[in-house]
């Protein structure tokens, strides 16, 4: 493998891994804050037991998220030094703002929150968890602002081969950022909702700690009900925005090679990227036109036409991303999203009729659906980042120009293997511990 | 002062803050297997760090991010050049971070020992390598006219960088020792004192050697500040030694922190206005002028830092105030002894349960054998199923049959 592919693989693996943990932090911190608010309002001890139980799981998850974040930040300099030189002056700004204004506070607050139950007043303790929740979701804003700059660069001025900051406000007002931010934080709530629901469902099935987990299930369910629906809706608008901002990504994720009016929505396709066509496809006529532009006859640009445009704009090159990957990752994500909407609705229906515990099959389905939101976010990021290829910064810098010229493939291999080994061990240990905490149930923490 | 200079000084401040705060973190990690003799003691030592390590590590993330945004060329050259040492540091920081949270989640001895040594390894690697990396900034790296690192791993190690590495490791150990002396049960602090005394002497020697080299390498304009910082560092280490008999552990802790800050400040002052020295050609060194971002970026960063840093410092101060109490070991010891007893009791219950089941099965088998003729193979097979084959039924004869339910999650 070339250094380029190794570095890309490494970034993909480490970032996805990091996000699996972070995404739960985003949503669960909000749920924890709500639970503790409930505890302060009602003064009921059982809410405190609940917060402590979920807090234990949260902390294990959070620790892995924190330490793996460091690796991602340093990777920009280690593997992507030319990218850092090119865009550090503008891409680094939101990264630095995130670290300074959000992460600083968050990491101090989390330490206080976990260990100060009997050391500070209850109100101060509540304020600290709200601080964690707000700062973690606020930190996502700046990190996504950095990512949005790569997707849709704004606010920059390119001088002597370096992208410099020209307009800070534009960077923070990037339209791409808002679609991405809303969709991502909602994904965090979906994951957190399902996490809470699945663990609670396990306890409802085993009929232990009923009261605690009925309450927990309710909180998870309400969260999931709101978040799954809104995530689907926001995803739809995000996709419509892609039709303007990144038509190539949209066309590739829909396997649309030729411009068409009306454009069909392809449900299933066998794609041959070498010949720039689909060998076989099953399509819904005019579906894509409606989805992308809300009109039956709207033309949607195909990849071949866009390739021609880009060659004129950016010079010779191949500007079509990996179509098969994009096409299927998008479908898996959407499929899971719709399944979760359906499953949440059913859960809600039976919960409303107070018959949840009479339907163990439903509870089991909820437990087994826990990996699905994780798969969906992985697919979503795969589509977002691989759909950006061959660009590192859309229209400004090609991915192949961003890697470190002085780092040999051997070094990248070594780091890839080392990270893979360490990350695997940590994931196994974290799963083992989470399993132990869940089976241990609420109550006093074992030392 | 110019915008660039202010920003660079703030980056230096952030990195120094990281070294001071994470310094005792690493020191405690390195001391852990030697100071903590029992499991309870080790858990108590970890307990002193558990609420604060995340807040300490974040300083590195912030310093890195501000360097990235403010001085992208320095960031790119340094990180791609120091690839393998940084990789080791990062891997070490990853495993030590989770070790804090994972260690006490299981009672198995191997599990706990594993995370103890993970903490040790994860602390000693960054302690040594950060020093080497800082030393490299001053002795110079082979950086060419294109701002690219052209050397190999060997170029990072020289007498000076090794001295710097060892010095930082010793300073971190000392800082960790003073931290533990202020945080632990008084019964354990007695054990730390002799270690701290020896550490002080050695550190003082290495620091003097280091000062000699550093003062010589300082840029002509920065001799005074470098000299003053070095003197301060040596004086601080010396006062830790003197104060070891004192009854004010916090003051010792402040002095050991000051020693780290002054040492780092001396190197940064000796460097200024350079960020990384090029050993190939002084003209090719990366400095505050040729690697900074544009004024708007620097302005935004500086503005953000000036607003945020006081707030964060106050917040951190509050955190240390909340957790100011010493960790008392008897409580930890009792808790762990209670756990041990609980574990033993659970085993015993399990064993009794098994034997009761065995008795019941045997009884049933005898009954059925008496009532109807069965194949003779049944009885030995039942024996083979039992987890306690050695137990004789006669031992349990006369005892009331108790059915022990497996532990429910009530």
Describe the protein in words.
- The complex is a heterodimer of chains A (447) and B (410).
- Chain A is mainly α and 447 residues long.
- Chain A is 73% helix and 6% strand.
- Chain A is built from 14 helices and 6 strands.
- In chain A, strands 1-2 form a two-stranded antiparallel ribbon. A two-stranded antiparallel ribbon of chain A has the order 3-4.
- In chain A, a hairpin with a 2-residue loop joins strand 1 (156-159) and strand 2.
- In chain A, helix 2 packs antiparallel against helix 14 (409-440).
- The model of chain A has no long low-confidence stretch (mean pLDDT 89).
- Chain B has 410 residues and is mostly helical.
- Chain B is built from 14 helices and 2 strands, in the order ααααααααααββαααα.
- A two-stranded antiparallel ribbon of chain B has the order 1-2.
- The longest helix of chain B is centred in the last third of the chain and has 43 residues, at 329-371.
- Mean pLDDT of chain B is 82; it is low at 375-405.
- At the A-B interface, helix 2, helix 3, strand 2 and helix 14 of A face helix 3, helix 4, helix 5, helix 11 and helix 12 of B.
List the helices and strands and how they pair.
The complex is a heterodimer of chains A (447) and B (410).
Chain A: H1 3-42, H2 45-78, H3 81-115, H4 122-151, E1 156-159, E2 162-165, H5 168-172, H6 175-206, H7 210-245, H8 247-253, E3 265-272, E4 277-284, H9 287-293, H10 303-314, H11 323-352, H12 360-368, H13 371-386, E5 391-393, E6 397-398, H14 409-440
Antiparallel strand pairs in A: 1-2, 3-4, 5-6
Chain B: H1 3-35, H2 39-49, H3 53-70, H4 72-81, H5 83-102, H6 109-139, H7 159-183, H8 186-217, H9 223-243, H10 249-271, E1 274-276, E2 286-287, H11 295-322, H12 329-371, H13 378-385, H14 393-396
Antiparallel strand pairs in B: 1-2
